[in-house]
């Protein structure tokens, strides 16, 4: 069986998620490729220690050049703070490797465009991470939209809500400082996840009116003092999309301070004939609406209905590691040409589009007016 060798640059939270998915690749049934983790680079030696337990790895290094020079690495997953995306994504492409990038795909719109140009120049295969649409619920929402069953679309709502920042004493980290995570703040953190399905449906906003909030502006620095927390915590984007020549409102929410929400990703699409609603808050529940004599919302308990079949029983519940693995399976399937109509990962074009929306949102908030997106 063909084997694809993977290297990771940035062995923190998400580097470990990729290692975990690749470490149990054998759960995919009849997947025609082996995908193996071979090398990990992190500037922090302590972070590398965790990877010592993975037998397939033959290179653990603090030097990214050693990883990029390795002929044993075909695809590089980069999971670094946002201010490093442009620099490292370019290095990967210059080394002649394919890239699985993390969102937000550059710290701002300018960086995203530079990365996209380099991809076009290099011809390498690049996609960006966004795993939530690979939950069975996300997959069914796409199916419902594409079925045409919903009639004329009335409105779309999508969002991603966390409550991890509700604790004002949670110490600061790079994700709460603009110089590392970008002026787009929470939009860079959660926005790509929110926009993946809308953009794939062709629903790119034509204009946006944004309300951005900085709610907790200081956090413990972890050394007994306080640090400035200068990022946008919450973003409400009221946007307009065009469907069959008609303007349709699309509300997008990205929040780090959403009381009670741990990691709730949701999407709702309402039409004149039907509707669909899914939230990871109720992971296996899909709601569908039918306009009949009486108006009916139906609750369906979805099982393990994933695009790439696994050994897991069809009625069992999926979780974050499962949808993350399905996303990786989609990346390698698309790279090898056997995606066969299944949802693919976020493309570089879509990542740039998401940045256009976030950039317009910053301008909208500043000018307190709606901004037209070119
Ligand atoms: N897809 C998702 O659901 C998801 C979730 C969280 C974060 N992310 C994204 O993943 C990326 C990384 O986030 P994270 O949560 O893993 O961060 P993290 O802080 O947990 O890990 C980053 C790692 O990069 C290392 N690092 C920093 N500079 C480096 C350099 N120059 N060379 C090599 N290693 C370096 C750090 O030591 C750290 O171990 C970000 O783009 C973030 O937005 C995605």
Automatic annotation (TrEMBL):
Domain of life where this protein originates: Bacteria
Enumerate the spans annotated as GFO/IDH/MocA-like oxidoreductase domain: 143-276
Q: Which keywords, in A-to-Z order, does the entry hold? A: Oxidoreductase
Gene3D superfamilies in the cross-refs: Dihydrodipicolinate Reductase, domain 2, NAD(P)-binding Rossmann-like Domain
Determine if Oxidoreductase is one of this entry's keywords. yes
**Alphabetized Pfam families for the sequence:** GFO_IDH_MocA (PF01408), GFO_IDH_MocA_C3 (PF22725)
* InterPro entries in the cross-refs: Gfo/Idh/MocA-like_OxRdtase_N (IPR000683), Gfo/Idh/MocA_oxidrdct_glycsds (IPR050463), GFO_IDH_MocA-like_dom (IPR055170), NAD(P)-bd_dom_sf (IPR036291)
- GO molecular function annotations of the record: nucleotide binding; oxidoreductase activity
Could you tell me which residue ranges the Gfo/Idh/MocA-like oxidoreductase N-terminal domain spans? 4-126
The residue ranges crossing the membrane are none
Its name, as the record gives it, is Putative GFO/IDH/MocA family oxidoreductase
Source organism (scientific name): Cyclobacterium amurskyense
